[in-house]
């Protein structure tokens, strides 16, 4: 798959410039530059994401994803998608049934914002932002390692890793270390 954007029939350009930051674009960066790239990447407002946006991506349809606050800078949640399509996994986060078990983002959003129901939380979460980070499926285990790395270094409000292992990683990995080396070190 290429990293070049795709023009849709409606004239919308999708791909690396719209809601995606391919891992291949940051893999050789330093830890600080990679984290800055994620924070500074263009993100799409959840209420504006269409199923078609997720399906048409000319990227691997697996990897990690980030939910950001409406400001686009505050990371709320980092997740991985290694066994299904982004369309399948992301949809599960927005299930409004209390007994759903993979709607972690929505449940955390409801609790954090003290919403009365998951439906109410979903309505309010529409201004949050989404960023996809496609990772080639041939990079065995990289999605899980990258998710762990970003849960430590992006410090998402809803699912940051605060274990001793995470603390040791924060202390041992320097801002000028290469991202892939840091991810392997955590792995």
The helical percent reads: 25-40%
Distance between the termini: 26 Å
Spatial order of the strands forming the largest sheet: 3-6-4-5
Class by SSE composition: alpha+beta
Q: Tell me the strand percentage band.
A: 5-15%
Q: What is the average per-residue confidence, as pLDDT, rounded to a whole number?
A: 87
Report the C-alpha radius of gyration, rounded. Answer: 16 Å
This entry's quaternary arrangement is single chain
Number of helices: 9
Poorly predicted sequence stretches spanning 5 or more consecutive residues: 1-16
Number of beta-strand segments: 6
Helix and strand sequence? EEHHEHEEHHHEHHH
Sheet of most strands: 4 strands, antiparallel
Silhouette: globular
What does this protein structure show overall?
This protein has 187 residues and is of the alpha+beta class. It is built from 9 helices and 6 strands; from the N terminus they run ββααβαββαααβααα. It has a 4-stranded antiparallel β-sheet. The protein has a two-stranded antiparallel ribbon with strand order 1-2. Helix 5 packs across helix 6 and helix 7 packs across helix 9. The two termini are 26 Å apart. The N terminus is likely disordered.
